[in-house]
Write a structure and sequence with these properties.
4 helices; five-stranded mixed β-sheet; single chain; globular; NSI-like
Length: 135
């Protein structure tokens, strides 16, 4: 199998929903909003096995200093093949001239994955968010 990577946003709403549901992410339950969010993102890199969407990463950036990597995911049937790492390196290359490239793993256990690519846990940082109760 040959995995191809692209920044073209040729994925469909159904393909995106299937991928997000394959990893159990709640975003997959909101296909319209998820699709719009991806289309409106600064960068989306997708991984494909033929016409099957098997991985995706997106980044939001301010155009000069900060890029925030979000949604790094790979279909469980394709995990362990270096797909996520390849996409992370593609993001790092694209944003190599930015001052910060940040990621906020939602689970502490995932921090070691990002550390392999030079990311460090912020000494005094803490992740914060609000969740819209109407969702």
């Amino acid at each position: 199998m040959t995995i191809t990577y692209t920044e073209e946003r040729t994925f469909t709403k159904d393909q995106v929903q299937r991928l997000f549901r394959s990893v159990g992410w709640v975003s997959g339950e909101y296909p319209d909003q998820l699709y719009r969010a991806l289309i409106g993102s600064s960068t989306v890199i997708s991984a494909w096995d033929g016409d099957r969407l098997v991985g995706l990463v997106r980044a939001l950036d301010d155009g000069a200093m900060l890029a925030y990597m979000h949604y790094v995911l790979v279909d469980p049937e394709y995990q362990g093949q270096g797909i996520a790492g390849h996409m992370v390196r593609m993001i790092q290359e694209k944003y190599r001239d930015f001052f910060y490239v940040e990621v906020m793993p939602e689970e502490r256990k995932n921090a070691s994955f990002y550390e392999r690519f030079g990311f460090k846990v912020m000494t005094d940082g803490v992740a914060m968010q609000t969740v819209n109760p109407n969702w």
